[in-house]
Amino acid sequence: MMSVMCPSSTCSSQHCNLSLLIGTLIFSFLSASAQRGPGGVGNNDGSSNLIYWIDANRQTDVVGVNLTQISDLSGNNVQHAILGNPTVAENFVNQRTAISFNGIDQQILTDIFINAASYPNLTVCAVYRPNIVYAGSVWGDYQSGWEGRYITDNAFNPPRTSNFVGPGFDPVDATHPSTVVPGLFSVENWVISSVVFREDVINGTEVRVNGQLERTFTSNHNPGAFNLFTIGAGGSPNAVFPFWFNGYIAEIIVFNEALDELDLPIIENYLSAKYDIALTSNDLYAGDVSGFDYDVAGIGRIDASTVRLVTQGTGIVSIEATSIDVNEFLFWGHNNDGLSAMETSDIPDGVEARSSRVWFTSEVNSEGDAVDIGNLNIAFQLSNLGSITVSDLVLLIDSDQDGLFSDETPITGAYDLSNNNYQFQNVTSISNGSHFTFGSSNISETPLPVSLLNFKVSIVNADILEFAWTTASELNNDYFEILESKDAFNWQPIIETSATGTSNELNTYVVQYDDRHHNGRTYYKLRQVDFDDTSTDLKIEKVDRDRSDEVALFPNPASSFITIQGDEFDHVEIYDSQMRLIKTTTQDIVQVNDLLEGMYLVYIYFADKILVRKISIQSD
Q1: Tens-digit pLDDT profile for residues 304-335
Q2: Where is the DUF8202 domain positioned along the sequence (predicted)?
Q3: Residue 92 in 3-state DSSP?
Q4: pLDDT tens track for 349-370
Q5: CA-to-CA distance for 418 and 412, rounded, in angstroms?
Q6: Within its chain, how far is the Cα of 42 from the centroid?
Q7: Cα separation of 89 and 95, whole Å?
Q8: Alpha-carbon distance 20 to 37, whole Å?
Q9: Residue 61 phi/psi, 5° resolution?
């Protein structure tokens, strides 16, 4: 049964019953409207127009560095066949993961169609980085007759024969190529492209690059069945020209509708913040410049009918506006700190602890000027945070934007909407540039959950990390776990240590861990587990390791041979400036006098990582 805490300490039974009814209606509305897709557009349960979604940071399986499995996040259970062993590059784009395709024989083949017969209207958003000028196709469904939908570079070959081809170019007529779409294949630069197909609508199909509309054309595809949707190529390997992609792909999102001028910028701002890719148009979220680039979502209104009043996105916060005027938008994102209420220094009177996770808001119009949307209903989904008494929850807003919560007045009166959803209604103090978080006014009743005073991860030496944390109190606490992750989504337990049980005294824990196999950024999570196996995640810390100097390659420039010195590696691949594989070896001394003069990339493969070095080959 759902429980709703009446904001007043004394109320009539009739009033409480009314509050219960209101809470039930609110939760039903939020469940239906607060969408969980990228940026809060579409749902991730298969119930919306979001038909396909992959993210290299989430639900991937890797053996060594080879991608072996990736899951569809749309809720439609799209299946994949991974061909040619594309590899995973961790911490590659804004400390996030990407998938590397060699431009030779690697792709991800799905079991869905994106042809005009299945979906006359279609939107495909992609985040990628081409390695070379003629990088091939990021995605596509080409099979034969050049009538598939795909995005390819302007070196399409054989010659363009019709306007049936994909949006990498727009043919002038039946036999002549078009001009290049600006920025679509910017070498060694990350790109957000959005292609919106409106089949048979004159100039209705759009190509957007980093939020900017760059090309329109008439999409007039043959409605026949084409090939399965492919990532990392324009078609399947049994097509005449699969157009293998040479570069990196981080995220692909597909809707079976033509997204409008509200939803498309919301997704583009979500991707821009996540991957630190500047938008040249419709850059509406400012929190990404200060590190609040996680789980960005947005609402807004374009005109009388194009409006989104409530959404949630990939995070735990959903926001509903009671009304939004035309040309008003609200975006929010967080700093990815731990959810648990453990901050006890920057808190106002009446609050005993607050969450370390803080959210940033942008409340602007399309020109980026500040606006006032008005009253907001802000809800938090607080699963895995232990027992919560709703009257103890507080909302903290840095309304004067001085960087402090301690000088603010806590907002109380939250509603329990069931399923661990708690909402603060008619909030008026959010404005453009505000920060907000939640906390507890009584950590003995609502500790959120173990009263953790601190959690610190320290680098002891090149191989050893030290974890230290202190609790002020514990209740039925069986043990602690420490988990690690490269993406802050997928976690693996690495340490387990016994806890005190029940205690009202300070307890300090110190453990060490051999992390010599990690490079770049790694996240560490402290988890508390009760005797009844109930677990609560307490805090996340991150560690940056730079092991780039642990492998030496010399001489450089070289003419006869190179020596690779350092940690034991699996094998080495040498590529020329066009990313063509020239040589493969397992030896630490590599003969190079058979190579032409020029710059080469040396890929050094380890069990859990890849290091890349540049080397110059010169003649004797």
Answers
A1: 999 999 999 999 999 999 999 999 999 999 99
A2: 267-432
A3: strand
A4: 999 989 889 999 999 999 999 9
A5: 18
A6: 15
A7: 10
A8: 29
A9: -115, 135
